[in-house]
Amino acid sequence: TPATAWPVDADGNDLAFNATRAQEEKVSATFVMLARNRDVWGAVDSIRGLEDRFNRRYHYTWTFLNDEPFSEEFKRHTSAIASSKTQYGVVPKEQWGDQFPEWIDEKRANEAIAEMGKKNIPYGGSVPCASVPASFVFLAYVWSSLPALSLTGPSYLADRRMCRYQSGFFFRHELLAEYEFYWRVEPDVQFTCDITYDPFRRMKDEEKVYGWVVSLYEYQDTIPTLFKETKDFMKAHPEHVAEPNLMPWISNDKGETYNGCHFWSNFEIARLDFWQSDAYMAYFDHLDKSGGFFYERWGDAPVHSLAAALFLHPNQTIFLREIGYYHPGFSHCPLPKDGVRCACSTTTDDDPHPAFEFHGFSCTPAWKKITGDRAASPFAGAHG
Ligand code: GDP
Ligand code: MN
User: Fold this and answer.
1) Is the pLDDT of residue 162 over 70?
2) Which atom belonging to ligand 1 lies closest to the Cα atom of 34?
3) Catalytic one among 186, 268, 296, 322?
4) Best of 31, 32, 34, 190 to mutate for ligand 1, by most ligand atoms within 8 A of CB?
5) Tally of structural domains, the chain
6) What are the counts of helices (DSSP H) followed by strands (DSSP E) for the chain?
7) Which CATH number does the domain housing residue 195 bear?
8) Can you tell me where the transmembrane regions are (predicted)?
9) Does residue 380 lie within any of the structural domains?
10) Residue 332 pLDDT level (bands cut at 50, 70, 90)
11) Percent of the chain topping pLDDT 90
């Protein structure tokens, strides 16, 4: 049990939360949310949820990033609901890619974007960075759980800029320079259980680098050459590849082809220095130079996941099973023995946000098998 976990009774009443100790054991960490000014109310919903479930006890800083300056309104409403310091940053223009990088063939990029736009009409701009397998059943599953408004998502070019920024640049922002860990939060997500320990502290104590809650298969049409580029990179830079690694999780044929398994990166808790490392910086640069962020539609989810799978020891990734989470499309709901005061269910069929972990399109069972992850939470018992 991590130092900061505390017991609660069946009603979620704290039995021994120690506020002084929690503050003393805080890690150098911040939440990071990339958002537009018009995302303000979705941002407020997400902040409210995470504050109530976790941060009201810890007061970790909130960092907001935007490709435009944040409005006074955005700052006012988000800072009013955060229990901690808030800070607002603008993304440097050259990192957002307002101009295509000079090695990109603009004509080819524009054609690819138009083409992909046509193909993807059934699920529009709704799942741009972490998409879905080409299965009708699966699309219906996703489609039925997405809010209707998501159809009016950002333009395809804005999507690509955003995916590329989340893949290769957010961790270079000056506002993040002082931190060791970050927790990515998006507008319009929900945290469905009480979080009765500090995940940052746990990850630091257990020497974890990448924490996740949902994993699934990528839609191969968005990443036709991503794995080829990844293999080329590994061949050129064997020194960056961890041994052992999670290749068995991302490939069913010993690294020949990618099976699409990835962590759903709209939730992630990770070490900033992993992305800032020589290995990842070189990997991102290799991918970026190949143009796939523009010619295809590479998401930060498969890019982060391939890096975590190949440059980390499997034990450096952690399934944060106690954290209930919902982002339109899918949800992670802890088993009753792992979750505290959950507003989700793993056992009933009529939960509007059914747990995805046991769905056939989840890659989580395979991850557990490969890493030998325990079936039970280390906190079982601690929480009654
Ligand atoms: P999805 O989760 O893959 O469907 O992508 P989202 O539309 O939720 O976008 C992912 C994240 O990037 C969210 O935090 C959005 O608020 C943010 N985002 C997306 N597009 C833009 C953009 O054009 N500008 C800014 N500032 N943020 C964006
Ligand atoms: Mn999202």
Assistant:
1) yes
2) 14
3) 268
4) 34
5) 1
6) 16, 12
7) 3.90.550.10
8) none
9) no
10) very high
11) 67
Residues with CB in 5 Å of ion ligand 2: 186, 266
CA distances to 59, 122, 153, 154, 365 from 127, in Å: 31, 11, 9, 10, 23
Range of the domain at 366: 19-371
Contact 333, 355 (CB under 8 A): yes
Residue 205 lies in a domain: yes
CA angle, residues 68, 71, 74, in degrees to nearest 5: 115
Q: In the predicted model, what is the mean pLDDT of the chain? A: 87
Burial class (CB in 10 A: 0-12, 13-18, 19+), 121: exposed
HSE-up (13 A, CA, CB side) for residue 304? 35
- Per-residue pLDDT, averaged over 204-233, amounts to 94
* DSSP conformation letters of 139-164: HHHHHHHS-GGGGG---HHHHHHHHH
Residue 119 vs residue 344, higher pLDDT: 344
Nearest CA to ligand 1 atom 18: 35
